[in-house]
TrEMBL record:
Residues 10-138 form the Pyridoxamine 5'-phosphate oxidase N-terminal domain. Signal peptide: none annotated. This is Pyridoxamine 5'-phosphate oxidase family protein. Pfam families: PNPOx_N. The lineage of its organism: Bacteria, Bacillati, Actinomycetota, Actinomycetes, Kitasatosporales.
């Protein structure tokens, strides 16, 4: 049933890139820390960078658990599952890192996402993941569902924000600069968007 892959290419890459939603899972090193599982969407916000590296855009939100966990230990699992077509689940287990706006790699990385207007969503980081284990499983019990469209709410909420107002928004949120478990989260003040 399950198969392990050496790289993200061919049919596997096509499957991953076609999915409108994926999930991320991270956890702190502490055994009693909070495990975080997050859905990710918005067409164009995910990219396969090479056969073992993927990235996604980390947009504004009320928490920064993934960023905090990656800053502490780098462990992350990404999962895609087929809600239409043949059943399939793909997991990429690896090491991730948040790349912030003031990182010298920002310009090169952001160019890999031409299919989305990231300025509308309060972009705060690009999460880069290097795969250590790539597996698929059957997904026979995943329900069939129909994708209608991306929700417009995130863009309509954050497109009016400037770098300054977005920084103020993050400062008001309890778990953006510091995670639920007290780990360093998003570095504040928020670096300005590169020109």
């Amino acid at each position: 049933m399950g198969k392990t892959y050496e790289r993200i290419d061919g049919r596997l890459r096509d499957f991953i890139e076609a999915q409108p939603v994926f999930f991320t899972a991270t956890a702190p090193l502490s055994g009693d820390g909070t495990v975080n599982l997050s859905p990710k969407g918005l067409r164009g916000s995910f990219a396969v960078l090479d056969e073992r590296t993927v990235a996604y855009l980390d947009f504004a939100g009320s928490n920064a658990e993934t960023v905090a966990h990656l800053r502490e230990n780098g462990r992350i699992t990404l999962m895609w599952c087929a809600f239409s077509g043949p059943p399939n689940i793909v997991r990429v287990h690896g090491r991730g890192e948040p790349v912030f706006r003031d990182d010298s790699r920002w310009g090169e990385l952001i160019a890999r996402f031409p299919g989305i207007d990231h300025s509308r969503h309060g972009l705060r980081a690009i999460i880069v993941v290097t795969a250590e284990l790539i597996r698929d499983t059957c997904g026979y019990a995943v329900p069939l569902m129909t994708y209608e469209s991306d929700r417009p709410l995130h863009g309509s909420r954050f497109e009016r924000e400037t770098d300054e107002s977005l920084d103020a928004y993050f400062h008001k949120k309890e778990h953006v600069a510091t995670s639920i478990d007290g780990l360093p989260g998003l570095p504040l003040p928020l670096p300005p968007t590169p020109a």
